[in-house]
From TrEMBL:
It catalyses: a 2,3-saturated acyl-[ACP] + NADP(+) = a (2E)-enoyl-[ACP] + NADPH + H(+). Its EC number is 1.3.1.104. The lineage of its organism: Eukaryota, Metazoa, Spiralia, Lophotrochozoa, Mollusca. This is Enoyl-[acyl-carrier-protein] reductase, mitochondrial. It is found in: Mitochondrion. One of its GO terms (biological process) is base-excision repair. One of its GO terms (molecular function) is DNA N-glycosylase activity. SUPFAM superfamilies: GroES-like, NAD(P)-binding Rossmann-fold domains. It comes from the Eukaryota. Keywords: Fatty acid biosynthesis, Fatty acid metabolism, Lipid biosynthesis, Lipid metabolism, Mitochondrion, NADP, Oxidoreductase, Transit peptide. One of its GO terms (cellular component) is mitochondrion. Belongs to the zinc-containing alcohol dehydrogenase family. Quinone oxidoreductase subfamily.
Length: 365
């Protein structure tokens, strides 16, 4: 789909404004500060910094000034070489973020200087100050939401949205259960479920700062927050009895015994969707759950969904819906710690901390 059509679709869904004519200026003598790798390995060792002079714009290119870009688990895995997508090396890192267009090529339609854009696909290279890129490689979004909300829009909120929409026909009053509830996706699930009147049972690991973690989640007004250990107690049975129904959907990003516990609490014919494996342990399925409870298993990968629905209106409607909730203060941005590109080593160290709370974000602009 041409960028002009895609931009128009997004504009129609989100902005409802007519296009504005824009003069075109060719880029010259601009240097980009980039974080890149030329080999896979430990992110603390292989991630490097460089300054590169940008080439002039071609007719169908735009110059994007990056504003913010988070460090997601997929970024760490990509640097390690363990992610399913492995870019050709050397490569600038960063899968998610938001930038502002500062120049457009002479043949670009539907994008103008000042527009905010997010990457259309993964491995885009958001950890840099400027990027010259094809007009078809970006999606225009509203510029009346916070920068941090825009920078963290396309991965966690969209993953939560799709998993709640695509696998079970959830209705108001239904119940879901999820582990990793303090993750970016987990927090997004809590907020979307609240908006759609879906009850959530949110599972977290035992950890040194458990009380403060529970309090931070309670600020989002979830229904229940319990530990993995609590799932195996008689009190969990009492909790389930207090619910209007047993969970229809389980969302798993941990694997191992944590996933097994989710199986145990699903309703007859329930569905479990796995979108991560933080424990690095396999998902072990009890035979009885498959045969007698007819539990169904699925996997979700946000990159795959985006590629399959690259030109579909449902993608832009989803982004529009999430942006609407953000503007209505019904979907808040995650708790963040900010780092500059110059301080990238400290940022990577923080991002790989096992008990880190919140999201690590490069504040570029």
């Amino acid at each position: 789909m041409a960028a002009s059509v895609r931009s128009f679709m997004m504009q129609k869904v989100i902005l409802g404004k007519s296009l504005i004519n824009q003069s075109y200026v060719i880029v010259r003598n601009i240097s980009s500060h980039q974080l890149f790798i030329d080999k896979f390995g430990d992110p603390r060792l292989v991630l490097r910094s460089q300054h590169v002079e940008l080439s002039p714009l071609k007719p169908k290119q735009v110059l994007v000034k990056m504003m913010m870009a988070p460090i997601n688990p997929s970024d760490i895995n990509m640097i390690e070489g363990t992610y399913f997508v492995q870019p050709s090396l050397p490569s600038v890192m960063g899968n998610e973020g938001v930038g502002r267009i500062v120049e457009v090529g002479s043949d670009v339609k539907g994008l103008n200087s000042g527009d905010w854009v997010i990457p259309e696909d993964t491995a885009w290279g958001t950890w840099q100050t400027y990027k010259v890129t094809s007009d078809e490689s970006v999606i225009k979004i509203p510029n009346d939401i916070s920068v941090v909300s825009a920078a963290t829009l396309s991965v966690n909120p969209c993953s939560a949205y799709r998993m709640l929409k695509d696998y079970v026909n959830l209705q108001a009053g239904d119940v879901i259960i999820q582990n990793g509830s303090n993750s970016g996706v987990g927090i997004s699930v809590i907020q979307l479920a609240k908006e759609w009147n879906i009850t959530t049972v949110n599972v977290v690991r035992e950890r040194p700062d458990l009380d403060s973690l529970k309090q931070s989640l309670q600020n989002l007004v979830p229904n229940f927050v319990v530990t993995e250990e609590f799932l195996r107690t008689p009190q969990m049975k009492d909790l389930l009895k207090s619910l209007p129904a047993r969970p229809k959907l389980a969302l798993n990003c941990v694997g191992g015994s944590s996933a097994t516990e989710l199986f145990r609490h699903l309703d007859q014919g329930g569905v479990m969707v796995t979108y991560g494996g933080m424990s690095k342990r396999p998902v072990t399925v009890p035979t009885g759950a498959l045969i007698f409870k007819e539990i169904k298993l699925f996997g979700y990968w946000n990159t795959s969904w985006n590629r399959k629905h690259k030109h579909d209106l449902c993608r832009f409607e989803m982004l529009s819906d999430i942006c609407r909730l953000i503007k209505a203060s019904k979907f808040v941005s995650p708790q963040c710690e900010f780092f500059t590109l110059d301080n990238y080593k400290a940022a990577i160290e923080r991002a790989t901390d096992g008990y880190r709370s919140g999201k690590i974000v490069f504040q570029i602009d």
